[in-house]
Amino acid sequence: MDICVSVKVSGRVQGVWFRQSTKTCAEQHGVKGWCHNNLDGSVEAVFWGDEVAVNSVVEWCKTGPVQAQVESHHVQTIVVSETFDGFQIR
């Protein structure tokens, strides 16, 4: 079953390859969506795909790449009207 979730990760997550690493992880799991930096220093992402695959990427986001220091993360299931073509960094 496919699901779509929104994730917001805070801490030392900008300038440490978080977005590129998220893209790599998502693509390895066949998950589509996007991620971007927020002005408040957090990273936001939307993941869409198989529930097990999406949950694997969400779990990875709790620590991120080795340079990151994730202090908090917020996950919520969402309904989207857009379709995703791969995974993009916005």
Can you walk through the features of this model?
- The structure is a single chain.
- This protein is globular.
- The model has no long low-confidence stretch (mean pLDDT 97).
- It has a five-stranded mixed β-sheet with strand order 4-1-3-2-5, with helices on one face.
- It starts with a strand and ends with a strand.
- The longest helix has 11 residues, at 18-28.
- By secondary structure, it is α+β, with helices and mostly antiparallel strands.
- Helix content is 24%, strand content 41%.
- It has one domain: Alpha-Beta Plaits, CATH 3.30.70.100.
- The protein has helices at residues 18-28, 51-61; strands spanning 2-12, 32-37, 43-50, 69-77, 87-89.
- A hairpin with a 5-residue loop joins strand 2 and strand 3.
- The chain contains two helices and five strands, in the order E-H-E-E-H-E-E.
Amino-to-carboxy terminus distance: 26 Å
CATH topology: Alpha-Beta Plaits
Instruction: Specify Rg, calculated over alpha carbons.
Output: 12 Å
Strand content: 35-45%
Net shape: globular
User: Do you know the CATH architecture?
Assistant: 2-Layer Sandwich
Structural class: alpha+beta
Low-pLDDT segments, ≥5 res:
none
How is this fold's topology laid out?
Layout: E1 2-12, H1 18-28, E2 32-37, E3 43-50, H2 51-61, E4 69-77, E5 87-89
Parallel strand pairs: 2-5
Antiparallel strand pairs: 1-3, 1-4, 2-3
